[in-house]
From TrEMBL:
SMART domains listed in its UniProt record: UDPG_MGDP_dh_C (SM00984)
Top EC class of this enzyme: oxidoreductase
Name the record gives this protein: UDP-glucose 6-dehydrogenase
PANTHER family, A to Z: UDP-GLUCOSE 6-DEHYDROGENASE TUAD (PTHR43750:SF3)
Residue span(s) of domain UDP-glucose/GDP-mannose dehydrogenase C-terminal: 220-297
Species: marine sediment metagenome
Catalysed reaction, written as an equation: UDP-alpha-D-glucose + 2 NAD(+) + H2O = UDP-alpha-D-glucuronate + 2 NADH + 3 H(+)
Record lineage: unclassified sequences, metagenomes, ecological metagenomes
Record flagged with keyword DNA-binding: no
Length: 297
């Protein structure tokens, strides 16, 4: 708030202790900044810190909140723990597990979880490319390994690379944090490298099919968002492929049931927008199925 407003001056009128909870990354600097700001306002306010990372999937956030696999809370005092226990009591009546730990551990749990899932995706994409070279069927390989309870069948579907607001950001953040502490995360760097190159695989297939010349060709897209059930275009593989197609002289006609407006905001009139998936096929030379919407697969 602007200094001098009622919100700034009212702190000194209170005689309570507070708990600051952050759902994203917390650093010791946060506590220092908050304390300095309170002191500047002449208030004497005691407070504790807690970190409560979220594990919500886009398109299923409400369900994930009400039925979480686990609740992770980082605390810096017993008082903070008791406060968070009271806060979450109504949400853990069905015995959803709640794990208390120190704040750095809670933050690392969030980054590590997303990075592990990204690792599974990049690994399976790498295997898919090898399968194509060797004449194997990656879907048969996926079923074969997914039946192993130690591996499971989630996040082992090959595709055009992961995107969205979480996986790319968290993988890069973990790599950066490790590098700052002079410890290179070699596996995660490989995950990032594989994902970057995977977003070019479909483009390379199109170029190969048309013998390296797609000038004047029209390519249809079914799906644009980075995954179904969302209009999120952040780090979407479709944007990488479309950009490369346009640079080679091709035209693009696309349909997505949710992400059309967001795509128009990003790409404007660089591509043509169809009113449904079948219109997108009219007078086109190839179809790219980029997002596995139920109506498209």
């Amino acid at each position: 708030k602007e200094s001098g407003t009622e919100e700034n001056t009212s702190l000194e009128d209170f005689d309570w202790e507070s708990l600051m909870v952050k759902e994203d990354d917390y650093t010791p600097k946060v506590r220092k900044v908050v304390r300095e700001e309170i002191n500047k306002r002449g208030a004497d306010v005691a407070f504790d810190m807690a970190s409560n990372p979220e594990f919500l999937k886009e398109g299923a956030a409400v369900q994930d909140f009400l039925r979480p696999d686990r609740i992770v809370i980082g605390i810096d005092s017993e008082k903070a723990k008791k406060t968070m226990e009271r806060l979450y009591k109504p949400f853990v009546l069905n015995n959803h597990p709640i794990y208390f730990m120190n704040i750095p551990s809670s933050e690392l749990t969030k980054y590590t979880a997303n990075s592990m899932l990204a690792t599974k995706i990049s690994f399976m994409n790498d295997i898919a490319n090898l399968c194509e070279i060797l004449g194997a069927d990656v879907n048969m390989v996926r079923k074969g390994i997914g039946s192993d309870s130690r591996i499971g069948n989630k996040f082992i579907y090959p595709g055009a690379g992961y995107g969205g607001s979480c996986f790319p950001k968290d993988v890069q953040a973990l790599i950066h944090t490790a590098a700052k502490n002079k410890y290179p995360l070699r596996i995660l760097q490989a995950v990032e490298d594989v994902n970057r190159s995977q977003k070019e695989v479909i483009f390379n297939k199109i170029m190969k099919h048309f013998n390296g010349n797609i000038k004047g060709k029209t390519i249809a897209f079914w799906g644009l968002s980075f995954k179904p059930q969302t209009d999120d275009m952040r780090e979407a593989s479709s944007l990488v492929i479309i950009d490369k197609l346009l640079n080679e002289g091709a035209s693009v006609k696309a349909y997505d049931p949710a992400a059309m407006d967001e795509t128009k905001r990003i790409l404007g009139d660089k591509i043509e927008y169809a009113t449904d998936q079948y219109e997108a096929l009219i007078d086109t030379d190839a179809l790219v199925l980029i997002t596995e919407w139920p109506d498209s697969v």
